């Protein structure tokens, strides 16, 4: 509405009405609230409003006021007049200034202030408004436009307060000597010089959003600070104001509070010190284990590497889950979507992948978006239990956090990952989940009064996730050879993969693993749907051994599914069909895997090798997994050279296949 008022204010000035008529008309409306209510009321006919305007207002103002009545703008008459006054002063070279003081300045001091403003802004006339504020203790604050000239004792005391606040953040317990040391340092650095800052006035604050009038030079993504020390990030740039998303509490803030530019973009701490820690979306520790000693910071939003800097995805990022590594392999630098309904094992699949990276020199980052705090605590507990926290970072923006922190969390996690990638390391990032991320962004966008589109999401919701996931890649050797592999998670409703957000993310990623509710509840876990899951990298991200061992697995399963549906009502089956069904059920049973027990490459190869050669079909289905487990233990104990050859050479020769089959026959005979 302020932008519309600014247009009418400019229009009023351009009509060249006498200033006395404009001021007189505005004063009449200010002094007579009944008149203003009448002209603002939708219940009063337009013709009646026109009659009132013709009787009470000067001729030069009538046409303009009738236009305001027609457009229902009288309720915003104060904003219209402010816009007119600003335009009038700008065109007549009049500087508008406000001096806030603790002790009333003398006439000589006021004259010097006016001379300073006139010289600084090349003004012919200076209108100076005086305001008293005893809290300043001493000195004063001069506001001209969106610039603030500060020279007072209060600002130095505020620095002392902030210094003590930072010291308390760093140490769990602070002694009296340390307090004295901080205060002594602040006194030594007591600033008596005038500080110049760009500031704006808060016109609205609430629901995690602040609208600030002014800050004309603020940048998108810039951090602004408020009087109470809290921070916000600029998210919306308008003609005369900016929309900010709060990064902290709005306590002690309200209309009229000041916001100051920092000229810095939002950033998070990065580095090895972050490993093993649980942090919030701003990189601050929330695990109660003390401060994080990190000297390096990285901006939250960064440009994705270009095509020239990337190389082909052809190195496996093994998940340890047989059904995925065999049929839908993930490569380092790939973006593989995990999609499915609520409570189908999406998070468990991602955690298994993290656990499987132990000893592989891969840094793992788990980003929890909109999850319950208890869920995040449970995930952290599992990672600690299996020794995975030492190479992991948990970034948590829980359901009780501000929508702004839920929005920033995945970008913060990716910035932490980029630090390691540029050092030449491989990183795995899990975003759990991007559905809640989109909902948080939708809430912010609606509060910032952006136009809603499909399902009330803003028009740039596709860009929201594309600019995030495009940062995942594998760099070429010239740029360090590091990689970021991302596993975004999307929650569907009743298996609807054709909904807005799921289709968006499917089109951005390099494949998806679809977890089906029916499979999950029938006991087949992980509940991977072979028909709807796909990896667009495919065999390029598999070792030669896995490619050979998994050869016809997907086709065999597809044939089994069709045969099972076709024969479910038949009782008289030939032996060939019975054998095919038995073989299919055997494969399905082997693909079941318990939670938090990822399989090594050698375990997967041996399992697939004996299964594809139909060495298990003569066993009962419920005995097969135990047989395979015992067989692998036997090979480890008696024929460890087989394990060593698979793990080191990663090739499955015909001789090795025959050796594995021979050992299996030997074990069976026992």
Structure description:
Belongs to the ATPase alpha/beta chains family. Belongs to the ATPase delta chain family. ATP binds at residues 340-347. This protein starts with a helix and ends with a helix. The relative contact order is 0.07. It has five domains: 2-91, Orthogonal Bundle (Peroxidase, domain 1), CATH 1.10.520; 94-188; 195-267, Elongation Factor Tu (Ef-tu), domain 3; 320-542, P-loop containing nucleotide triphosphate hydrolases (Rossmann fold, 3-Layer(aba) Sandwich), CATH 3.40.50.300; 548-669, Lysin (Up-down Bundle), CATH 1.20.150. The protein is built from 24 helices and 20 strands. The strands form three sheets. An eight-stranded mixed β-sheet has the order 12-16-15-17-18-14-19-20, sandwiched between helices. Helix content is 44%, strand content 19%. By secondary structure, it is of the alpha/beta class.
Topology:
Blueprint: H1 2-14, H2 19-31, H3 33-40, H4 46-56, H5 59-70, H6 77-91, E1 94-101, H7 107-121, E2 125-132, E3 139-144, E4 147-152, H8 153-170, H9 176-188, E5 195-206, E6 209-214, E7 222-226, E8 231-237, E9 241-246, E10 258-265, E11 267-270, E12 278-279, E13 296-299, H10 322-327, E14 337-341, H11 346-355, E15 362-369, H12 373-385, E16 392-397, H13 403-422, E17 426-432, H14 434-447, H15 461-469, E18 483-492, H16 500-508, E19 511-515, H17 517-521, E20 534-535, H18 544-549, H19 553-567, H20 575-590, H21 601-612, H22 624-638, H23 640-649, H24 654-669
Parallel strand pairs: 1-2, 12-16, 14-18, 14-19, 15-16, 15-17, 17-18
Antiparallel strand pairs: 1-3, 3-4, 4-5, 5-6, 5-10, 6-9, 7-8, 7-10, 8-9, 11-13, 19-20
């Amino acid at each position: 509405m302020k932008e519309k008022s600014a247009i009418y204010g400019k229009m009023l000035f351009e009509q060249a009405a006498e200033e006395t008529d404009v001021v007189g008309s505005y004063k009449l409306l200010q002094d007579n609230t009944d008149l203003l209510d009448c002209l603002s009321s939708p219940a009063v006919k337009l013709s009646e409003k026109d009659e009132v305007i013709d009787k009470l207002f000067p001729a030069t103002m009538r046409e303009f006021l009738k236009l305001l009545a027609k457009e229902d703008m009288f309720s915003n008459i104060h904003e219209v007049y402010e816009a007119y006054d600003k335009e009038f002063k700008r065109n007549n070279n009049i500087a508008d200034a406000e001096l806030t003081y603790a002790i009333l300045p003398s006439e000589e001091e006021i004259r010097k202030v006016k001379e300073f403003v006139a010289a600084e802004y090349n003004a012919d006339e200076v209108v100076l408004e005086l305001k008293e504020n005893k809290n300043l203790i001493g000195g004063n604050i001069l506001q001209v436009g969106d610039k603030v000239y500060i020279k007072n004792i209060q600002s130095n005391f505020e620095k002392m307060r902030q210094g003590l606040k930072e010291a308390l953040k760093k140490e769990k317990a602070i002694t009296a000597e340390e307090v004295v040391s901080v205060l002594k340092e602040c006194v030594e650095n007591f600033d008596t010089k005038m500080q110049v800052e760009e500031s704006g006035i808060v016109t609205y604050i609430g629901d995690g959003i602040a609208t600030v009038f002014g800050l004309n030079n603020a940048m998108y993504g810039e951090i602004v600070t408020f009087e109470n020390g809290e921070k916000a990030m600029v998210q919306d740039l308008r003609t005369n104001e900016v929309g900010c998303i709060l990064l902290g509490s709005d306590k002690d803030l309200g209309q009229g509070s000041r916001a100051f530019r920092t000229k810095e973009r939002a950033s998070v701490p990065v580095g090895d010190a972050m490993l093993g820690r649980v942090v919030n979306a701003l990189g601050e520790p929330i695990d109660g284990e003390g401060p994080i000693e990190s000297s390096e910071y990285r901006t939250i939003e960064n440009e994705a590497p270009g095509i020239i800097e990337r190389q082909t995805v052809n190195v496996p990022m093994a998940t340890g889950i047989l059904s995925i590594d065999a049929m839908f392999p993930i490569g380092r630098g790939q973006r593989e979507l995990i999609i499915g309904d609520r409570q189908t094992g999406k998070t468990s699949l991602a955690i298994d992948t993290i656990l499987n990276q132990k000893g592989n020199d891969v840094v793992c980052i788990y980003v929890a978006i909109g999850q319950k705090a208890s869920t995040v605590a449970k995930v952290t507990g599992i990672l600690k239990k299996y020794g995975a926290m030492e190479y992991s970072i948990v970034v948590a923006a829980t359901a009780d956090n501000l929508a702004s922190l839920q929005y920033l969390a995945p970008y913060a996690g990716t910035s932490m990952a980029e630090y390691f990638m540029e050092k030449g390391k491989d990183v795995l990032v899990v975003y759990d989940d991007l559905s809640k991320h989109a909902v948080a962004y939708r809430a912010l966008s609606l509060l910032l009064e952006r136009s809603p589109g499909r399902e009330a999401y803003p028009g740039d919701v596709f860009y929201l996730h594309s600019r995030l996931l495009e940062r995942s890649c594998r760099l070429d050797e010239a740029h360090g050879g590091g990689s970021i592999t991302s596993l975004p998670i999307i929650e569907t409703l009743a298996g609807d993969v054709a909904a807005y957000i799921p289709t968006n993310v499917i089109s951005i990623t390099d494949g998806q693993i679809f977890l089906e509710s029916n499979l999950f509840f029938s006991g087949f876990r992980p509940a991977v749907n072979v028909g709807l899951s796909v990896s667009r990298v495919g065999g390029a991200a598999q070792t030669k051994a896995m490619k050979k061992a998994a050869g016809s697995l997907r086709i065999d399963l597809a044939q089994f599914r069709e045969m099972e549906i076709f024969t479910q009502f038949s009782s008289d089956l030939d032996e060939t069909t019975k054998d095919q069904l038995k073989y299919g059920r055997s494969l399905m049973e082997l693909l079941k895997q318990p939670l938090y027990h990822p399989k090594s490459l050698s375990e997967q190869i041996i399992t697939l090798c004996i299964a594809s050669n139909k060495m298990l079909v003569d066993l009962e289905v419920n005995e097969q997994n135990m047989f395979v487990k015992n067989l692998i233990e036997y090979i480890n104990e008696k024929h460890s050279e087989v394990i060593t050859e698979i793990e080191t050479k990663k090739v499955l020769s015909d001789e090795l296949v025959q050796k594995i089959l021979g050992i299996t026959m030997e074990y069976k005979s026992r």
